[in-house]
Amino acid sequence: MAMKATVTVFLFLSLFGLNTSLYREHYYVNEYMEWSDARRYCKTNHDDLSTVSNEELQSLSDNPQISYGYYLIGLSRDPNDPERWIWTGGEDATNVMWDRGEPNTVYDECGAVKKSTAKVHDASCFWPIPFYCMEVFELILVQQESTWEEALQYCRQNYIDLAGLSSDVIMTEAKNKSTPALTDDVWIGLRFIAGHWFWVNGEDLDYKVWSGDEELQCPAMDQHCGVYDVKQKNWKPADCEQRLNFLCVKKPLNYLFE
How many helices (H) and strands (E) does the chain have? Predict the structure, then answer.
């Protein structure tokens, strides 16, 4: 069963000539698979085995859902050069946080992270252990003035969904992407129904940046949709029939997965 980790990270890419900012989310899969099978699972259900920065290693390893002492990531030796390690996206892995004495043998050709040290080990590609998959996303501002329902429909027809701003990282991206907005507020995927606020993309609403100290538990009848306030850089309830710009989330077409 795939379990979503609490880590989201920016990718500031010039990869393949791309000049944009993306973010990736990691999913812990509590199933025991060999590296190639794990990658096949990730490519089927997400994007790929996780590319992990050194800054992410500790947060991923702290995930309480981890059931084993090691987990696989999207790191392997270059089959044409055993001294070279690469990520599944083809990037050189030149700044890997190896554990002491690692890598220690040319016969171990895949990468795994030791939970207790949050550092990388070389490992047999045939060692069945849990693993992390990743998905890569991009926010896009639509400078079209629409109601909340119209914005939701537009995002789902043309991209993936209205944006869920579920972490500091994505909030920073929302701040950057909404700067050229033609309205002071922009629609996001927040909705109030049956006594609860929720993200329409199904994400947990654990992370909160409301304009007041707490979210409104009982907003007015005409205040059941959520906006990102471009100037105040927080969320607030709004009339769903207002016509505003909005933030969609999409898959970056130029990010290649082999």
Answer: 4, 14
